Structure formats: structure tokens, C-alpha cells
Amino acid sequence: MERFFNTAGPCNPANHYMLPWEHRLPGVRDLMDQQLYFVVHAPRQVGKTTSFRHLARALTAEGKYAALLASCETGQTARSDIKAGVMGIVRSIEANARQDLPDELRPPPADLDQIEGESRLAVYLEQWTRACPRPLVLFLDEIDALLDESLLSVLRQLRAGYFNRPEGFPHSMALIGLRDVRDYKMKVRPEQESAGTASPFNVKVRSIRLRDFNAEEVDELYRQHTAETGQKWTDEAVARAFELSQGQPWLVNALAYQICSTDLRDRTQVIGVEHIEQAKETLIERRDTHLDSLVARLNEPRVRRVIEPILTGDVSFDPTFNDDFSFVHDLGLVAQREGAMVIANPIYAEIIPRILSFHVQMGIYLQPQWFVAEDGTLDMMKLIGKFLEFWQENGEVLLKGMPYQEAAPHLVFMAYLQRVVNHGGRIAREFAVGTKRADLVVDFGGRKDVIELKLASASRALQRGLEQVAAYSKRLGRDGGYLIIFDPASDTPWEERGAVEAVVYEGVTVTVVRA
């Protein structure tokens, strides 16, 4: 059987193309050799479980350590029931030890029924450590699945046992989860007792974020398929896959799986950029579990406070923004590049506005062919004219019903545009906090058109918009572009909005629309 690109669960090298774990976890062996405790965090489905499962097995096989990965997820339902939460972890350790460790390295039978939940895990790990003939290395996965008192109790027990290592407690330990340990305290109800320090696990020496793949690693992963099947990728296709995914491991694998296992099973066919683009569209339209779980969070207040100013290019003055950004960054939805806070990758940047405006898009009746010129390109002025009619008739009602109030005009326009471009073209979107801009590039019929969206409340909206449209249009070799300035707070009656004028700026004709 051919190996394939995995998109569900941990990777197995016998079945899946995969990269060595060492690529993205440099220095981890040194931490273990130094008897240290550390934290590893990353968004879901980037390879945390896969990496540490293979690391644990490698360490045990080398003969120096007894190493094991166990999940805390079974303790999630316990919430404030410390006894149940701790026993969930113990049972997970026992089950994984039976699978991955030889008899002499497994934890000895333990009678824990008479031990209080507040010390049960510590006693269990002490007994195992003292009985094990090798230094014990333990990786606790999904640690932040624990909630309330269960989480706090586990962290306290691990912190207390730390000082008895390596003879009376694991030699080294990693807590693996979605967020950094500094944020675990947020999972405990604020009215209850804290751990008494800034972090409830202050014995950790480092917090490591498992990074996404870089361009070279995406190339290495994809070339494994070529080596085994003979099917080739163009360099441009591999580069486009990285550009669209920014190396997010699930997206990298999902694009490749869609192509190699569904769209292009003929191994004599070379995989090109067009296949990457089609796979991207399929993923966005299908909204697999990974994408669905992310977009399900968009209406959470903390997520909205970060995503909304990114969509509008505005500056957030919310005092919670830094903490909110850290949270949304840990979810994998956003990133910081070249000093700007942006949507994490172009695929997320496309799916987020689509989801936020989906109900609007479905309520728009139009025939895309209305806007296609004789040469196959879009008649942009006709499209904008029809949008203005739609905006005059429906804008006021739509704005009131949108959860993202500040970004609502942008989302409504993108929904309208998407209904047209779905049939034969694509939209590239660029958003970033503080840029005072939202860039759209419409690629239809072999021509690219620049559309800049702005809010009238932004300072120097017209001047900055002209500068940005002119610069972007020149980059694409175009002598014209479009600037739409929304003013939802204007006193102008809705039926009178829609002034259009052409402004020549630095040799570029910019069509300025006030909506």
C-alpha cells in the first residue's frame, strides 16, 4: 500500500508521509538530560502528539530512559472532581504503558483508593519512579483539557514532586497543550483559590511553541510522495502550497491528500499550481473538521476583538487586546509577521470572511454572467453599480444583524463579490491590524483588479486609499483600481449613497466609491 498524507490523528511512518520530529523540537533532548521540566504548546493538529509519541518510543528504544506519552483528555469531564480527574490520567498512563513499554518499565500495580485525590497522582508517580530501573521521562499530552480544581490539583502535585526528582519523581517531564502554562490559571474560576504564583507550574524551565513547517520542510514532505510513486510536483506548486498554508501542518497535508488521493490519482500526471488552487477551493467549501473547529470560535468575544480590527485594518484600543491576541494566536488563527498582526495564512484569510458573511451571501440573488464582459473579464463598474443598489436597499438592515459591527460593510461587500467570483475566478485577501486597509485582488478571466476597502472613520481614508490602490495596482501592472469608502454612520439617507468619481493618482486611475 502506498503511504499517504495524513489529516486525521497521529502520524505513523508505515502509513503516512511525515518529517522527523527533531526538525521542530531542537534542544529537547538537552532539557531531558538536564532533568528539567518544560512546556510545549501549539495549535491543534500541528503534530504535538505525533512528535512526542515518536520521541518517547525512540528514547525507550535507545535504552537510557523509560519514556511515555499519556493523554489527560480523559480527565476533561471531571471538571472540579479532583479524584475523577486524577484517575483519568492514571488510567491513561497505565493503558499507554501496556502498549509502549516492556513489562519491567511499566508502573507497578498501585492501590490508590485510600489516597486522597490531592496527592494521588504524586504518590502514583513516586511509586513508579522508585520501581523503574531507568530514569523516567513523562510527556503529559492535552494537559489543558483539564478544568477547574482538577487542573490546579494536577499542577500542584507535579510542582511538589519536582523537588524529589530524579529518585522519587520523574527525571524529566513535558506538559503538552494548546496554550502556554502561564495561561493555565485562566482555566480556574477566578473566585477560587489560585496557585499563589503568577504561574501554577513555576518549576518549568522553558515554554516551547511547536512551529509550523518552513518552505524547505514542505518541499521535503511533498518529495517523499515523488520518491515513492514517481508523481512529480512543479516547484511552483510546492511554493504555492506553502504560500497558501504558511506551513500549517494540517493544511499542508490536506492540500496534498486532496490532490494525490482524490483529484489526481494518475501518477504520470505532474502536480501543478492549478491543482493546488483547486484543492484549496475544495477544502474551503467542504470545511473539514479542522477548519470547522476554528471557525466555530469566531463569535467568541475574545476572538472577535482580535479578528475584527484585522479585517478592517483598524487599530484596537481595547485594553484586553494583548491577552486576546495571545489567546487567538495560540488557537492558530492569527500570526505576527513583519510587525503586523495578520490572519495566520491565506486559506484562513479566505474562509473567515466567507463564514462571517455566509448568511448574507446566500441571501443575494444575482446571475454571475451579468457581470462578465465579452473578453471574459469582469465588468467591475457594472458589478460595483449593482452592489451599490443592493447596499442602498439592504445595507441598514444588514449592518444591524452582523455580529462584527465594525467589519460589517467589508463583509457585506465581500459576500456580494464572492457570489460573482465563485463562478470562474478567485479573490486574494490581505488584512492586518493597524494598516487602515483591507486589500482584495480579484483574479477573473485572466485579469487582476485591485479593490481597497476602507471606513470613512479612518484618518485620511481618501488619501491613504489612493496611495495604497496606486501602489498595489502598479505592482500588478495595472493602470486602474478601485477604492470603496464605507460610512455607515453618515447622515446621508441610504437611498442617496453611492457617489462615484475617478481620480488619477500617480498615473493610476482610481475609481472612488462612497457607500
Summarize the structure in words.
The chain is of the alpha/beta class and 515 residues long. It is built from 17 helices and 13 strands. It has helices spanning 28-33, 48-62, 82-100, 117-131, 148-162, 215-229, 235-245, 249-263, 273-286, 289-295, 301-312, 321-331, 346-356, 358-362, 380-401, 408-421, 461-475; strands at residues 37-41, 66-71, 136-141, 172-177, 206-209, 334-337, 340-343, 425-431, 438-444, 447-455, 480-486, 499-505, 508-514.
Looking at this structure, what is the CATH superfamily of the largest domain? P-loop containing nucleotide triphosphate hydrolases
* CATH architecture designation of the largest domain: 3-Layer(aba) Sandwich
Mean pLDDT: 90
CATH fold-level topology of the largest domain: Rossmann fold
Strand content: 15-25%
Count of helical regions: 17
Approximately how much helix is present in the residues? 40-55%
Helix-and-strand structural type: alpha/beta
* Cα shape: elongated
For the report, how would you describe the main beta sheet? 6 strands, mixed
The CATH class of the largest domain, by name, is: Alpha Beta
Secondary structure blueprint with pairings:
Layout: H1 28-33, E1 37-41, H2 48-62, E2 66-71, H3 82-100, H4 117-131, E3 136-141, H5 148-162, E4 172-177, E5 206-209, H6 215-229, H7 235-245, H8 249-263, H9 273-286, H10 289-295, H11 301-312, H12 321-331, E6 334-337, E7 340-343, H13 346-356, H14 358-362, H15 380-401, H16 408-421, E8 425-431, E9 438-444, E10 447-455, H17 461-475, E11 480-486, E12 499-505, E13 508-514
Parallel strand pairs: 1-4, 1-5, 2-3, 3-4, 10-11, 11-13
Antiparallel strand pairs: 6-7, 8-9, 9-10, 12-13
Helix pairs in contact: 3-4, 3-5, 4-5, 6-7, 7-9, 8-9, 11-12, 15-16
